[in-house]
Recover the amino acids of this structure.
């Protein structure tokens, strides 16, 4: 594929290296900071492109979506921070007959953890001697807690569990109620992101743990998604690609 990279920051650089390692060509890099080949997106940059991968900031999410759809180029968008505009962008893509996939987490490993967490929550509906909890570690510069990934895991557990119905992220100065799912957060060091789901009984402990080493998992997922999107039309979520490729 010939791929235009929009947003040439930490993710854009990693995406370029994954694209090259899989034998794809770079049609160009767009970044207003001057870090890329072009400072703004223009329709002619997509003339010879098969796909565009965007991990940028959300300020031009609509303008970019219009350009991608009009050019008939498959767009993979990992840019976050535009949740409230999802329906608007879906409308743009569908009205113009475009191809667009968005996702707040392109890591296939993280999605495998979501699936495993959901499965674990279902298992303890029949093995009621087990309790379930979630914990996450992130680097000392992270400004929010819990992580979005930890919250997604917790929501998957709540949806599946007959025991747990409320997510609790605070420090507890009391015993936890059986229906509460505790999600803990620890900050320090340079940890890119570690998430653990723990099942515990008086007899044993089971841990399901995802440890991100770097941003490579997100970048690889976006490139595989671009390959999957070739020849398709419509507005997709990353979950559409992941569930088909994992066969779940
Ligand atoms: N969906 C996922 O799996 C996932 C994973 C990691 C990061 N992200 C998101 O991807 C985005 C980029 O992350 P990052 O770590 O590379 O950040 P970064 O700060 O390293 O890079 C962002 C780059 O985008 C550029 N940019 C800003 N506005 C732009 C525009 N309109 N067009 C093109 N480029 C523009 C900036 O100049 C910067 O170079 C963020 O929204 C982040 O939350 C998503």
């Amino acid at each position: 594929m010939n791929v235009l990279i929009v947003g040439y920051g930490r993710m854009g650089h990693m995406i370029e290296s994954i694209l090259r390692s899989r034998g794809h060509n770079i049609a160009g890099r767009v970044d207003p900071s001057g870090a890329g080949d072009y400072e703004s997106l223009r329709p002619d940059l997509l003339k010879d492109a098969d796909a565009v991968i965007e991990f940028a900031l959300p300020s031009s999410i609509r303008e970019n979506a219009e350009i991608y759809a009009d050019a008939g180029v498959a767009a993979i968008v990992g840019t976050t921070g535009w949740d409230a505009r999802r329906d608007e962008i879906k409308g743009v893509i569908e009205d113009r007959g475009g191809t667009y996939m968005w996702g707040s987490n392109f890591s296939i490993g993280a999605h495998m953890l979501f699936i495993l967490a959901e499965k674990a929550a279902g298992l303890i509906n029949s093995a009621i001697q087990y309790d379930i909890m979630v914990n996450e570690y992130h680097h000392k510069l992270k400004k929010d807690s819990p992580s979005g990934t930890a919250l997604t895991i917790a929501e998957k557990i709540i949806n599946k569990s007959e025991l747990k119905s409320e997510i609790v992220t605070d420090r507890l100065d009391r015993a936890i109620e059986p229906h509460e799912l505790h999600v803990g957060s620890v900050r320090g060091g340079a940890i890119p992101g570690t998430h653990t789901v723990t099942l515990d009984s008086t007899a044993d402990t089971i841990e399901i743990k995802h440890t991100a080493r770097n941003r490579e998992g997100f970048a690889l997922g976006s490139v595989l998604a671009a390959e999957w999107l070739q020849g398709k039309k419509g507005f997709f979520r990353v979950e559409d690609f992941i569930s088909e490729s994992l066969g779940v």
